[in-house]
Fold this sequence. Notes:
Layout: E1 9-13, E2 19-30, E3 33-40, H1 41-45, E4 54-59, E5 65-67, H2 71-88
Antiparallel strand pairs: 1-2, 2-3, 3-4, 4-5
Amino acid sequence: MDKIEVGEVFTITDENDQENEVEVLAAITLEGTDYVAVGFVEDIQDDSEEDIDVFFLKLDDEGDFSAIENDEEFDKVSSAFEELMDEEE
């Protein structure tokens, strides 16, 4: 799979087999693993002042995105994205 770019839109399937379009808000590589922060396209395009839900996904060995399964990894990735966002402001 090619490098994922910020702004790229793709479809993910949730646990109920429902498809959702998400947009990449940020991408980062930690310890050799690629991660993305994504939000639902519908929420991003909505002009409201409400916060949008952001999800973190990791790129697996087959080039597919999967959920982060453990709290330790989630906390590490969440902190890294938070630092990235702070640097960009």
